[in-house]
Amino acid sequence: DAAGAADTWTRRAVRDRDDHLRRLRDGSAFQNSDTYRRIVGDLDRLLVKGAWSASGRRLGLVDATDDRLSPTRSADLLHAASEPLDDPYVRVLQPRLEELLGGEEPRVIGISLNYLSQALSAFALAGLVRRLAPRAHLVAGGGLVTTWMSRPGWVNPFGGLFDDLVAGPGEKIFKEIITKCICEASAAGAAVCGEAVAAFDLLPTADYLSPVPVLPVSGSSGCYWRSCSFCPEKAEGNPFRPADRGTLLKNVENISKYMKPGMLHWLDNALSPALLGELARRPAGTPWFGFSRFEPLLAEPVVAAGLRRSGCVMLQLGLESGDQGVLDALGKGIRLETAEAVLRELHRAGIGTYVYLLFGTPVEEERAARRTLEWVASRAETIDFLNLAIFNLPLGAPEAAALDVRPFSEGDLSLYLEFTHPRGWHRGPVRRFLDTEFRRHPAIRPILRRDPPFFTSSHAPFFTPFGSFGNRYSVRRAGKTRLNG
Hints:
The chain has about 475 residues and is α/β, with parallel strands linked by helices. It has 17 helices and 16 strands. The protein has a 6-stranded parallel β-sheet. A 3-stranded parallel β-sheet has the order 3-4-5, sandwiched between helices. Strands 14-16-15 form a 3-stranded antiparallel β-sheet, with no helix packed on it.
């Protein structure tokens, strides 16, 4: 409570909590950049300073860590499962889970695990499920599980907790598991398994920290390009599986009528040119954003204008470098002149651009990084948001064989390798360059300032002109000059 808070910032955050939550949900928080920053900063502060912080658990709006346990150590994950109520998230979920499992025990329960920050809590949840439903068939899947299972020499350390681990798209395999566990038990069970219905009404969409419900949609799994060096998708052997476009878009239309989302987020690693073309030909619908490569068709005025009419408010674009030699060496298949034309045409159409850059790859050197700075700065008017990242070497990348590598961490589930950079462009110098030069450049600093803290690309669409809930922080209006934040 406010009286017990140790400092003025925390007391203010406690006092304003309910109003902050209301403003994120009604959209008024997005009308001014300083207001938004204060709101999300206060809410993050409440989590950081929560009662559980004394135990070594660090919670935030978008992350969770533990000083004692690591999600890259299987022993620590199993420990989390053995003491599930030590986890603050599971402690909150316990009454609801007991209510759900208090009647007839489900035959099959699945847990989706995609990010390291979710792992400790996911295993704690699995531990509680084991206590409440000991006879249930417990399955884990998702992106992080897929990465673990693709590790060289993978041996499952979680057999005593999970009955099955599923790699890659899990719908087909999960249905097979359900068929085996339920449908073979009786004719009635078989009839139930013939059709699956998503219970969207169970989702508390009004409680999410966004002004409208955002519906995640996938048009494919894997990546259609699959030629980039050091790509986790390629290292893990994930094939490209596109959905039938007609069926996909019809399903999205039907689900949208039921859920009435205010925004769609396409989660594909990159929207394929075929799907982009199909979207550009569709009539106006729910606003949407998603990931795309710098495909030449995006530089075509008719395509960019069509995407805007269809509801596209922002595209997330992986450039990685502003040096052509680096792009060629990484197998990106991007020409800088094409990237420039795409940014220019999307800007003209009124589509926001969220550009991703990657520094410190084994093929980059300091001079190449400076060329990236120059390229971005000279085209700043067509870039609305920037994400800067330092390269991590994926554990299973075949290119690692040519590098001097060593363990990234002590965990048996570590996702990366440390390496000696062949050009001396190590993480320390890269970080100093980004902090002292790149982020301080007068053309780039305002772009970075626009990036919504904590939520970054998830909230960025609400600050674009056609997806905004106010215009004092909008990045620009279509065909006009950029507004000040």
